[in-house]
Amino acid sequence: MSDAGSVDFDDEQGYLGEYEGERNEAGERHGSGRAVLPNGDTYQGMYENGKRCGQGTYRFKNGARYIGEYYQNLKHGHGVFYYPDGSKYEGSWVDDLRQGHGVYTYLNGDTFDGEWLRHQRHGQGVYVHKATGSQYCGSWVAGKMEGAGEIVHLNHRFQGTFHNNNPSGLGKYVFDIGCEQQGEYVPLDQERMDGEEEEPAAVQMKWKPKSVSRLTLWSPLKEHAEGQIEGLKEVKTQEAN
Fold this sequence. Notes:
By secondary structure, the protein is mainly beta. 9% of the residues lie in helices and 60% in strands. The chain has a 17-stranded antiparallel beta sheet, with helices on one face. A hairpin with a 3-residue loop joins β15 (166-175) and β16. The longest helix has 21 residues, at 220-240. The protein starts with a strand and ends with a helix. The relative contact order is 0.06.
């Protein structure tokens, strides 16, 4: 069953816009069709029992475009979203959100290839800066670099632990000339003026070198464990004093 074009109304939602395509016996949009929504957006693709379900293309009035899978009117499955600013995401969607593995290409050419959770970078992933070629490869939590990771530059790299987008704790710099410098990122002491109220601010870290040696094999788990051991040693020393 199909029609050449009609205007739909719903008892709960009111005006649903214009529709041209297939319907089921209940008169619901079902199968292949094209719709013009009340806000000016358009959708062309598959429907199931009145809702977008299956492969389709949704064009937003602001210039954005989604090509991919739907379920119950929501982006769900694999799809590509072209944003109005020129950026693009291609990958997995769950309930209208970027979730699972996907690749995001930003307006400035930077890319992130990795795992997502509820629209944020979360899990393992690689962020590449197009302008410099530098990249971060490692763990992400709620959109930020968090946990074991590695930053790779043109002629050297840093391997260690990250917190709130910054290196923190034990780590090492590895240089292409064949040596490495081991050390630790520690909080930078910040003096406060008399009478100045203490406000929560981002903690600045500074690199504290310890030794220089030939190249050694780096293990994220090993670095994390050593960091915890060093922390316990410091606590015991403070308790003894």
